[in-house]
Every structure is written in C-alpha cells, then in structure tokens.
C-alpha cells in the first residue's frame, strides 16, 4: 500500500543526493504521495499528535537533563532550582511534566479508537502488537520519570510499585534488589531510574518507526473497516491529511497550553512538593493518573501475587486481541451489539481510574472487583462470543459509496458483511 513517489529532483544538489541516497523520494512516497482512505475522521489525527508529543518530550527531557543531578541529596532541590534559577526552567519542567499526561491522553484515545474501529484485525496484527509494546514502554518511562523529582509521592510510589515484583515466585526478591540497587529505595535506585528514563524514549522512537513502517505495509484502516477497492477510495496524504492533522495538532496544543500556563500542577500530587522522607508515609499513596485503572485492578485482588498477575494481565490481554475478537467485521459502526459493549468497557475503564484514586476500602473495593471482572470478561468471553452470535449491519460496497451516502449507514445497494481482507 506504499505510495509511489513521483518526486523528480530539479536542482543539481537534489539530483546528486537522489542518485546516492534517495531519501527525499522515500519521504515523498511515504509521507506525501501515500494513498490514504478518503473517509478518515479526526480520531485518526492522534497518531500524528503522538509523534509530535514524543519529539517534544525528548527535546524538553534532554534540556532538563543538562540541569538535573540524579542524587538523593540534591535531586529535590535541583528540580526546584530548575524552576527558579534556570532561564525558562519553569516552562521546560511544566512542558515535560504535563507533556507526559498529554502523551497518555492522546494514546488512550488512539487505543480506544483502534478498539472501536477494529484496527487490530488482519492484516494489522503486527501493527497493533507494536502499538501495545509502545504503550508498555511509555508506562515504564512515565513511572521512572515520576521518581526523579524525589518528592514524597516519588519515593513512596517507587517503593510500593517495585515491591510488587517480590510477589514473583523464586526470583522476586532478586528482581527487587536489582531494581533498588541495594536493600531499599535509595541513591542507587534513583540512578537506575534516571538512566532508564533517559534511554527508554529513544527505544520508543525506534519502535514508533517500526509501527509506522507496519502501518505503511498494511495501509490505514478507516471508519467503515472495509478494504480500499480502488484509487477512488483514497487521496494523497498531502495536502489533505497534513492539513487535517495540522488543525488537530493546533487544537491539541491549545488544550496542552491551557494546562501548562494556567493549571500546571492540576494533574500532579501536592505531596510531591514535599522532599522524600522514608520515615513519613503519606496517608494515601497513589500513582500518576494514567496508571490509576491498573492500580485499581492491582488492589482489587486480595492476593499480592494475584494482583500483580491481574495488573500485568490487563495489558497482556491486549496482545492477543486480534485473535480474541472472532468477528469478520472490523468497525463497530456495523456491529450494534459490540458497540454497546464497547461503551460499557469505556465506562468501566474510566470508573477504574476513579476507583484507583480512592482508598482501598468499603464500596471502592467491591466496585473495583466488579469492574476488574468485567474488564477481563469483555476480552476473554464477550468478544469471542459476539463474533459467533452477532448479526452485523450490511456494509457499503466501497469507501467511496460510504462517503457519498453520508458515512456508515445502510446505503442502497449494500452488500452482506463479507470477510475483510485489506
């Protein structure tokens, strides 16, 4: 599905470079002339937003590292010095801290868009798996970055989360000792987390390249979920989608800027403005908001090992999603039953996030267990059965027909839902 480049170098330097390293024609074919389904909506713009946010996080992170010392004696005061003494240090720090939240907001929308429109189905299984790997790397990077300011929530969050690995039979204690670099969360731990936090974004960038490569092999999915039938179903990526992505990025940056300039600490925790103290435990230890659904799943299981398995299983199940969903129809637009269960899943995920911020007591625990059970039932029971018993709505004959008839309704001349191949 890669675009055929029509690039013809005009200047002598361009001709010289094209003959020796045809990088301009490669970019032209993959990012300008690339054929893209003509019916993509604004949910498809979050891929470009995510690339922008990754670059922004790497740039702000590299500059912040120039002023940060990973030592428990000076880490907290060093971060405060960046805020007060470094030119525009406050802006860099708030861009980086809130950028992590924006990154996760965009990635959660991106994931749920994939779930709604069936973007994980054949032939996009590898594309989806690479996306889940990126998500895992993002979570690891975000967790380690949260430790670096060395405030109360940084210290105790690191202590609680790393201690979870001790539940692993046989090797658990050794893994925790390696993570700590000793027998408690201390200077060696901070150094390890700093090194990994600096390294992982570049690993994410590498997997993102593979993710985009896999996308350009299989081609974009689209809101109808049906294959591209002819050139009439597509438009070139530029100028149509570069313009659309640009508008979406500007809107997203306004949203991002609102947090950075007006409520920069809204998504953080006030205890992290208190220096880390191993002798004083916060009343309620919570991770960053983007980990809260998984934290709620962890706490919903009475057994420590069971909670760890459930928490990691909540992510691991996504790897098998292309094979758990047995329906041949991709888009929820034509799957009325699946559409209902999808929105229930969204509600459950939001509720789990809210429950993760609450104390593990009373009704919060009961609701957490109900939501955790539904989360796994959705993927392991409901999805396989829906593919067997659900009767989808008729699909349009082509993407162009869907566009001309106004989207994903039941246009005249629709055909019965066939197996999607493209």
From TrEMBL:
<feature type="binding site" description="axial binding residue">
    <location>
        <position position="197"/>
    </location>
    <ligand>
        <name>heme b b562</name>
    </ligand>
</feature>
<feature type="domain" description="Cytochrome b/b6 C-terminal region profile">
    <location>
        <begin position="227"/>
        <end position="397"/>
    </location>
</feature>
<feature type="binding site" description="axial binding residue">
    <location>
        <position position="211"/>
    </location>
    <ligand>
        <name>heme b b566</name>
    </ligand>
</feature>
<dbReference type="InterPro" id="IPR027387">
    <property type="entry name" value="Cytb/b6-like_sf"/>
</dbReference>
<comment type="similarity">
    <text>Belongs to the cytochrome b family.</text>
</comment>
<feature type="binding site" description="axial binding residue">
    <location>
        <position position="96"/>
    </location>
    <ligand>
        <name>heme b b562</name>
    </ligand>
</feature>
<keyword id="KW-0472">Membrane</keyword>
<protein>
    <recommendedName>
        <fullName>Cytochrome b</fullName>
    </recommendedName>
</protein>
<dbReference type="InterPro" id="IPR005798">
    <property type="entry name" value="Cyt_b/b6_C"/>
</dbReference>
<dbReference type="InterPro" id="IPR048259">
    <property type="entry name" value="Cytochrome_b_N_euk/bac"/>
</dbReference>
<feature type="transmembrane region" description="Helical">
    <location>
        <begin position="193"/>
        <end position="215"/>
    </location>
</feature>
<feature type="binding site">
    <location>
        <position position="216"/>
    </location>
    <ligand>
        <name>a ubiquinone</name>
    </ligand>
</feature>
<keyword id="KW-0813">Transport</keyword>
<keyword id="KW-0679">Respiratory chain</keyword>
<feature type="transmembrane region" description="Helical">
    <location>
        <begin position="42"/>
        <end position="69"/>
    </location>
</feature>
<feature type="transmembrane region" description="Helical">
    <location>
        <begin position="367"/>
        <end position="389"/>
    </location>
</feature>
<dbReference type="GO" id="GO:0045275">
    <property type="term" value="C:respiratory chain complex III"/>
</dbReference>
<keyword id="KW-0249">Electron transport</keyword>
<dbReference type="GO" id="GO:0016491">
    <property type="term" value="F:oxidoreductase activity"/>
</dbReference>
<feature type="transmembrane region" description="Helical">
    <location>
        <begin position="126"/>
        <end position="148"/>
    </location>
</feature>
<dbReference type="Pfam" id="PF00032">
    <property type="entry name" value="Cytochrom_B_C"/>
</dbReference>
<keyword id="KW-0479">Metal-binding</keyword>
<keyword id="KW-0408">Iron</keyword>
<dbReference type="InterPro" id="IPR030689">
    <property type="entry name" value="Cytochrome_b"/>
</dbReference>
<feature type="transmembrane region" description="Helical">
    <location>
        <begin position="90"/>
        <end position="111"/>
    </location>
</feature>
<dbReference type="GO" id="GO:0022904">
    <property type="term" value="P:respiratory electron transport chain"/>
</dbReference>
<dbReference type="Pfam" id="PF00033">
    <property type="entry name" value="Cytochrome_B"/>
</dbReference>
<feature type="transmembrane region" description="Helical">
    <location>
        <begin position="247"/>
        <end position="267"/>
    </location>
</feature>
<keyword id="KW-0349">Heme</keyword>
<dbReference type="InterPro" id="IPR048260">
    <property type="entry name" value="Cytochrome_b_C_euk/bac"/>
</dbReference>
<comment type="function">
    <text>Component of the ubiquinol-cytochrome c reductase complex (complex III or cytochrome b-c1 complex), which is a respiratory chain that generates an electrochemical potential coupled to ATP synthesis.</text>
</comment>
<dbReference type="GO" id="GO:0046872">
    <property type="term" value="F:metal ion binding"/>
</dbReference>
<dbReference type="InterPro" id="IPR005797">
    <property type="entry name" value="Cyt_b/b6_N"/>
</dbReference>
<feature type="transmembrane region" description="Helical">
    <location>
        <begin position="160"/>
        <end position="181"/>
    </location>
</feature>
<keyword id="KW-1133">Transmembrane helix</keyword>
<dbReference type="InterPro" id="IPR036150">
    <property type="entry name" value="Cyt_b/b6_C_sf"/>
</dbReference>
<feature type="domain" description="Cytochrome b/b6 N-terminal region profile">
    <location>
        <begin position="13"/>
        <end position="224"/>
    </location>
</feature>
<dbReference type="InterPro" id="IPR016174">
    <property type="entry name" value="Di-haem_cyt_TM"/>
</dbReference>
<keyword id="KW-0812">Transmembrane</keyword>
<feature type="binding site" description="axial binding residue">
    <location>
        <position position="110"/>
    </location>
    <ligand>
        <name>heme b b566</name>
    </ligand>
</feature>
<comment type="subunit">
    <text>The main subunits of complex b-c1 are: cytochrome b, cytochrome c1 and the Rieske protein.</text>
</comment>
<feature type="transmembrane region" description="Helical">
    <location>
        <begin position="305"/>
        <end position="324"/>
    </location>
</feature>
